[in-house]
Amino acid sequence: MSAAPAYGEDKGGSAGPGEPEYGHDPASGGIFSSDYKRHDDLKEMLDTNKDSLKLEAMKRIVADPNQLIRASALRVLSSIRVPIIVPIMMLAIKEAASDMSPYVRKTAAHAIPKLYSLDSDQKDQLIEVIEKLLADKTTLVAGSVVMAFEEVCPERIDLIHKNYRKLCNLLIDVEEWGQVVIISMLTRYARTQFLSPTQNESLLEENPEKAFYGSEEDEAKGPGSEEAANTALPARKPYVMDPDHRLLLRNTKPLLQSRSAAVVMAVAQLYFHLAPKAEVGVIAKALVRLLRSHSEVQYVVLQNVATMSIKRRGMFEPYLKSFYIRSTDPTQIKILKLEVLTNLANETNIPTVLREFQTYIRSMDKDFVAATIQAIGRCATNIGRVRDTCLNGLVQLLSNRDELVVAESVVVLKKLLQVRPAQHGDVIKRLAKLTDSIQVPMARASILWLIGEYCEHVPKIAPDVLRKMAKSFTAEEDIVKLQVINLAAKLYLTNSKQTKLLTQYVLSLAKYDQNYDIRDRARFTRQLIVPSEQGGALSRHAKKLFLAPKPAPVLESSFKDRDHFQLGSLSHLLNAKATGYQELPDWPEEAPDPSVRNVEVPEWTKCSNREKRKEKEKPFYSDSEGESGPTESADSDPESESASDSKSSSESGSGESSSESDSEDQEEEKGRSSESEQSEEEGGKRKMKKRKKVTEGQGDGSSSDEGSDSSSSSSESEKTSETEEEQVEPASWRKKTPPSGKSAPVAKEISLLDLEDFTPPSVQPVSPPTIVSTSLATDLEGLTLTDSPLVPSLLSPGSGAGRQELLHRVAGEGLAVDYTFSRQPFSGDPHMVSVHIHFSNSSDTPIKGLHVGTPKLPAGISIQEFPEIESLAPGESTTAVMGINFCDSTQAATFQLCTQTRQFYVSIQPPVGELMAPVFMSENEFKKEQGKLTGMSEITEKLTLPDSCQSDHIVVQKVTTVANLGRVPCGASDEYRFAGRTLTSGSLVLLTLDARPTGAAQLTVNSEKMVIGTMLVKDVVQALTQ
Amino acid sequence: MIHSLFLINSSGDIFLEKHWKSVVSRSVCDYFFEAQERATEAENVPPVIPTPHHYLLSVYRHKIFFVAVIQTEVPPLFVIEFLHRVVDTFQDYFGVCSEPVIKDNVVVVYEVLEEMLDNGFPLATESNILKELIKPPTILRTVVNTITGSTNVGDQLPTGQLSVVPWRRTGVKYTNNEAYFDVIEEIDAIIDKSGSTITAEIQGVIDACVKLTGMPDLTLSFMNPRLLDDVSFHPCVRFKRWESERILSFIPPDGNFRLLSYHVSAQNLVAIPVYVKHNISFRDSSSLGRFEITVGPKQTMGKTIEGVIVTSQMPKGVLNMSLTPSQGTHTFDPVTKMLSWDVGKINPQKLPSLKGTMSLQAGASKPDENPTINLQFKIQQLAISGLKVNRLDMYGEKYKPFKGIKYMTKAGKFQVRT
């Protein structure tokens, strides 16, 4: 294995005794073994101790044509933890950061923290690499580079500005681990760059209870209510959320539905820290869902919910029941759920919560029972209404058989009684009785303290308790002994007559105790309370010292104020700052300049839904190319890769321009439309296209670099191809395009909407115009007719060979019938050729009831008759449209033309060129399709173009007259390409004319339908050479 | 990020360790053992343990602790999620994830772990990609490897890593193209003493087993998608399409995967298909207690309830139980005080019951807690929430796949308080 020695050393000793350790890197093993022989020499070079040789070998590997090998080489190289290799590693990382393959760039990002941990002096250079990789537009790289950023230079927040919007938009397609890292970084970023969305809500915060309810209502109303909430407040300065802030919130929200708990938690903390109050509610549902997960996940989520539920109680209130405890839950989960339940308890739900607690008290899990009693105590202090109920409940627990329960109740009762001791004399009496039975030291100590503190409420009992305690003093625990001394001292001060002797007895016992703490306390107390000759000064104040009014303890959650740590972080969980924890900054007072995030590319400035979709779906666009393209992948060398890159970019560009040319051309006559408008339109079209690509079957969450590469360069290439077209295009072509050209994009849209009719576009890169719906076709017909200046020129070249005679005036006894191929889509059936029939009556009587009689048609051919013409007056003429499905053959359609009196047998034989309809495709699509139609499907013919055919204009006109084909834009000036589809079967017909300046030319037709191809070649050659 | 991983069995032996950065001495686990001792039960070991220089994050599955060592701040769920992913991967590779199996396949385990993390950061965690890199062991391959000394490292370049659908292998071929979907719903409920429902939720999942050639693009639609308002998806599902049309559209991973999980929350009404009648009483005076439970069906939509198992943790004071079941078998472990009754099918005409007496510790007062009853059951061909798949369509490939959909309702954490 290449790096085995160094690698193995590092791991040395890691294996336990008797257990095997494999000191090699399986990744490298896998890669090299794939091509064992080829890399033998490299292995040798690497195994030597000469650095120069190693370097040489690495250089060679890093330049391997296969991206996977390049990536793995870098991975191995960067895993060698030997300082001497640092410069080589730096070189390799820099190289890889500008690699063509996103996978190699990703590996480069992974290598950065490795190098940084090896030699932190390289920081500056590494930051440069990080900066470069941050600008990368692929999802593959994004997660890894942000991870490197967090590890190397988390303080360089300025590097994020330019990439912020891109990261937001890519986020949904990044793999899960990357998402977590990016979201947590963006949370910090947003805290430094945007204003607090809750600043205007500070007024509400003064009355938290109200705020909770408010937020709940807002939740129900949805995000739209946020503005309302803001305007309703008497705001000093109206708060408007930065669109970038909104972008982040919007783009992270779908991730709440991730299967990964870590991602859901990351989004939840982002919302908690960044979203306006009214919107935070959405995270509750997702977090509650996580509670069904593994217990470790529950543990972490509950910790965070506990913190959140203190700040935003309303959010989790509807899910109260989801936090109910099962006897099978692990204790640590039970205690956390209890914490949440306590936080959620309020005036309205406290009865149900207390009923739940009652069940818990009878649990077998004693730790849990103790926690429940504490929770009851907290509810009692927090909610005044139930204080007495809770107190009674706790007093009842005092008779519980389990000592632990009793002890815990005493401790909690002590705290509760401190709040209002005067009313609870009887409770104290009851507690005093317990000193006989209860043995838990903490509980005994608590009772003694209570009696001492409130001895004036139980003046008769207190001395008696002291008597008993004095008797058992020596057997007590230390903590109890201290409280006995305490009690004695307090009683001595209030009731010295009865207790003087007792006190002295206790103090004497304490004087000889084994514990020095107790001895000290006894000596100290004696000096204080017993008046002596010398020091009377202090004893005068003894009462104030011992019986000072003490503030009641506040029972509050241990999760209070934990939210100063970023939620979901390790530090929050431990409630202590972990190494490497990045503080969550406070919101700035004034918003920093938002323009720092502006990127020059105009696309980014439009911050809308649409942009997001665009970005998201861009990858699909070119991925499909990549996949179907034969060169894509592993074995292509950098050159060819770059070539394919640029190819795909020009492809996408020209693809658009061809579909655009229709509208563009018209506009150009009026004057060039403004830049922005153009891009606007482009966007729209691209969107459409992309949507289609999505259905094509690329994953939702994916991308590749080719995608963004092409997108960045597409705008340029578009422009160039447009201008080129302008120069090349002959006028006639331009005029002819509108009707059919228009139909193409509209048709596309239809195919998009109708998903049932979905066919994979890899087979049909452009939807054929055959799908044009009836209504649409009629619309289009209307359109061409009203477009008066275009009509004549549109129809004349379109109607191929001009008018053909169907019935001569003489044979028809005065009825003359001609027909033309209109080249418009037939409205009834897209497979039919639309034929215009012109009738003229040259007789002197009206001809009535013109209609088509029963046709006798060869198999497959069908006719859509024209509506009966009731009457044709003498000298008049009229036109009717009929459709004929020729079934992609040149067989004649024979039918009867009937009048009221006569029947004529007529037949229409179509020229082969009329059996097809133009198709618009880009040059690349053309090439791709052509590549599929070789061999038998390709027919080539050499010809010599006459002098008359030297101009572009004429050539194009001649070809389009013969065949109803659409021109395909072409880079070379002496090459002409046309594309169409046969009407019935929709097979592609591709025609290429390669004209040399000398006049020699070569005509190639590619079509599955060989007969059509042969005939077409014949016709075109004839037309061109004539 | 993740520095090292230790695998510790229930007797406290570290039987496997893996380091992605420098080596961390295994003495770091002493902190873990301390916590384990304090926790008494395995499931109560805190998942996050801070030590002076490291943090130990652990998950407990299949009686093995997977302890990750980290040095700096990392979201704890990130690590926990990853560890669970490791366990899932092992299960996927070896069928079961247990100490002997891991020891038997130690080479593959190391190879897989090496690929899953790079310098502590997750690299290839999708099972489809991993299997392309490192082949899962088969008997034949193990034999061949033993003889030739080769490994399971794949000899093909892992092109899957470059794919736009990283969860799917390329070049998948099957002679029989099949796609099966299991809609499995689990009812989590707490029923109180009197038989009324305190809380009931449904946790549903759609598990898929898709064996289709090529790059199929599937869409799955539901009769009543409104039920699914709280869902989480496999990354392959196109979220936008779900948002706009409520249709699941996805290119599936190859093999088994969880397509979707959903949650029907406690706010909705959930049908409870069984009831439990119980009479468990301890008397202060005598050392005998009465015990009687009956299980019966309700709201089952005409389906039979099968695989019923009743378990209950009895109070410590119970010494032994003498019970007679009307059907099925029962056991009582006097050490752990666990009662388990395997009922089987419920016959509505003759409801199963378990009756008898409990002998209590003589002289001790009666236990003041009543045991809770945990229930397991299965109902075939029924999704209790009413979810129904409308149709499954495939695009992008020409063949006709065989499609199958199965429904099942199970008890999740189903508890009856007494």
From TrEMBL, chain A:
Residues 643-658, 701-715 have a biased composition (Low complexity). Residues 1-34, 212-235, 609-745 are annotated as: Disordered. Residues 609-620 have a biased composition (Basic and acidic residues). Gene3D superfamilies: Leucine-rich Repeat Variant (1.25.10.10). Subunit of non-clathrin- and clathrin-associated adaptor protein complex 3 (AP-3) that plays a role in protein sorting in the late-Golgi/trans-Golgi network (TGN) and/or endosomes. The AP complexes mediate both the recruitment of clathrin to membranes and the recognition of sorting signals within the cytosolic tails of transmembrane cargo molecules. AP-3 appears to be involved in the sorting of a subset of transmembrane proteins targeted to lysosomes and lysosome-related organelles. Keywords: Cytoplasmic vesicle, Golgi apparatus, Membrane, Phosphoprotein, Protein transport, Transport. One of its GO terms (biological process) is intracellular protein transport. One of its GO terms (cellular component) is AP-3 adaptor complex. Residues 745-891 form the AP-3 complex subunit beta C-terminal domain. It comes from the Eukaryota. Residues 659-668 have a biased composition (Acidic residues). It comes from Ailuropoda melanoleuca. This is AP-3 complex subunit beta. InterPro entries: AP3_beta, AP3B1/2_C, AP3B_C, AP_beta, ARM-like, ARM-type_fold, Clathrin/coatomer_adapt-like_N, Clathrin_app_Ig-like_sf.
From TrEMBL, chain B:
Its main location: Golgi. GO terms for biological process: anterograde synaptic vesicle transport; intracellular protein transport; synaptic vesicle endocytosis. Keywords: Cytoplasmic vesicle, Golgi apparatus, Membrane, Protein transport, Transport. It is found in: Golgi apparatus; Cytoplasmic vesicle membrane. Gene3D superfamilies: 3.30.450.60, Mu homology domain, subdomain B. Residues 176-417 form the MHD domain. Belongs to the adaptor complexes medium subunit family. This is AP-3 complex subunit mu-2. The gene is AP3M2.
